[in-house]
Amino acid sequence: MGFGHLLEMRVRFLPTQMAYWLMENFDYKTSELLIDDNVKIKVTEDDVCRVFGFPKGGEEINRFLYSACNALSMQWVSLFNVRHRDNIKIKAVLDKMLGEVDGGPWFKRHFLIAMQFSLIESYPNGTVHPFVMRCLEDLNVVRKWNWAGYMLKALIQHAQSWADNGKKIFCGPILFLVLVYVDRMHMEGSNVPRTIPICVNWSGSELLQRQKLEVDKKYFGSGSLRGPIPLPAIEQLEPANVGRNVAVSFEQSPESLLRSRMLKISREIGEKARFLKSVMLEASVEHRRSLVFKECLVTCSLISGIRLVENLTESTQSEHIAAPTEVPPATVANIDTQNVCSFFP
């Protein structure tokens, strides 16, 4: 259907200060991000394709006509134990989706409805209004709909509503605006590779790091503007390719593509190391002294090749752990868990 790469997204939270600044500086009348008096970023349907890889078909998605598909809407509501469709919450939709273990038609419909709620537009009370239901009758032609245009229109409509209602709650595609901004405005110290779709390149922690870089400079918009990533050839946007996350490099040379992939791999390794470090730092003294905690250190040391543990012996290892021959003997009980975290970046 052209949405499989969304499963590779790693953003779990947003840089809220940056997001608010972007909303303050987005002109919904011209669909432009106003960075300063001399720098503007025009936000278009093509940017949706770059960020999320959404299809850009010829059929318009009209959010006000979703009830026109009455039979399918009623069938969808009947799957939930509710009296009215306005009582369906996003958690219930996700539970239904995960229950479709065979990945059949209703898994795909639940997935796209959840995607609409999470990435395009939602309601602040958590109820789900399936504005895309009309697009889900025939799942073989989902790509004929203009999903990119739908997201851009939702951004403009919700930005206007946000401005008109005291700038309280924004229910539009804020992550889209954030990713457009961090991709187009480059800052020294941010080494995220530029590939399509952009959404799989950034994690929540990297967005927070980018926000910190700008906060430290005392203001947002302090980077240098760069051009948009060239969109790939049309055959690379076909379902067989997009669903497999075909990455199109900003620079098409094999060397730059290899460098981007290596940066992505090293970044992911660093993230996992920092996560492990945070787990160790948060562990209580009592937990650090436990045999289970120390055996976890042994396992991490053997898997990662990082010398978290200075010495091991066969007699003190778990029955599922095999020590490398080059590691000198010692005991698990003598592992210094207080100094382990110094091995992590």
Number of strand segments: 7
Strand numbers in spatial order across the main sheet: 1-2-3
Number of domains: 2
Give the SSE string: HEEEHHHHHHEEHEHEHHH
Structural Rg: 24 Å
Major sheet: 3 strands, antiparallel
Structure classification: mainly alpha
Overall residue-averaged pLDDT value: 78
Beta-strand content bin: under 5%
Q: Judging from the principal axes of the Cα atoms, what is the shape?
A: globular
Helical region count?
12
Give the proportion of residues in helices: 40-55%
From the N-terminal CA to the C-terminal CA, the straight-line distance is 40 Å
Poorly predicted parts: 234-253, 310-345
How does this model look, in words?
This protein has 345 residues and is mainly alpha-helical. The chain folds into two domains: 4-249, no CATH class; 279-343, no CATH class. Helix content is 42%, strand content 5%. It is built from twelve helices and seven strands. The strands form three sheets. It has a three-stranded antiparallel β-sheet. A two-stranded antiparallel sheet has the order 4-6. The relative contact order is 0.13.
